[in-house]
Design goal:
The protein is built from five helices and five strands, in the order βαββααβααβ. β1, α1 and β2 form a beta-alpha-beta unit.
Length: about 190
């Protein structure tokens, strides 16, 4: 079992409900919430209200759509279609998979100061030339290839009306695109 620093506490709660803690926090961290939070401005307001003065909130998330800088991921490719479908379905149920591009603006509106935004290109396979980016691409590819069904199934079946079999067949081609090193696909993080 991993050890945890004695001054560290992990809290699991519904972050979209009214926060009712009897203390303020020194650090609030959110990661990969884009398909879990419907009202990021309100979440960030609650983060601000529940932070001790001078302390930090950190948000790390993906920002769809999946893209490429060199046109190697055509708009009609299965991966590009998947990305568009996730944006469409997410929007229909109140999620904005592209909304993380507005985090800095939303943080400013919530009265945060010293806002620092760093956007990374997260390669979705090992197409990049550099050793570090190749490794990141391999990790991202393993992660998304394993998780793409979980990301897709409810949105495509319950929201867009696909059958489970249609999703499974479609995801075969999405995974092929994800593994195709000639497609220099990435997602902003």
């Amino acid at each position: 079992m991993a050890s945890v620093a004695p001054n560290t506490v992990f809290v699991i709660d519904d972050s979209e409900e009214m926060w009712a803690y009897n203390h303020k926090f020194d650090y609030i961290h959110g990661r990969m919430l884009v398909l879990a939070i419907k009202d990021f401005p309100r979440l960030l307001e609650q983060c601000y209200e529940n932070l001790n003065p001078g302390c930090w909130v950190e948000m790390q998330d993906v920002c769809l759509p999946v893209t490429s800088d060199d046109g190697s991921l055509p708009p009609d490719s299965p991966l590009a279609k998947w990305s568009s479908l996730i944006i469409e379905a997410g929007g229909k149920v109140g999620f904005n998979p592209s909304g993380t591009s507005r985090f800095a603006t939303q943080m400013a509106a919530a009265e945060f100061i010293n806002i620092q935004e760093t956007v990374y290109k997260w390669p979705l396979n090992s197409w990049p030339k550099g050793k570090k980016d190749k490794l990141l691409g391999r990790w991202a590819n393993a992660d998304i290839c394993e998780g793409v069904q979980g990301i897709s199934m409810a949105l495509l079946t319950r929201v867009l009306g696909w059958t489970q079999q249609e999703v499974e067949v479609f995801l075969v081609d999405v995974r092929k695109d994800l593994g195709d090193k000639s497609k220099h696909s990435y997602i902003k993080l």
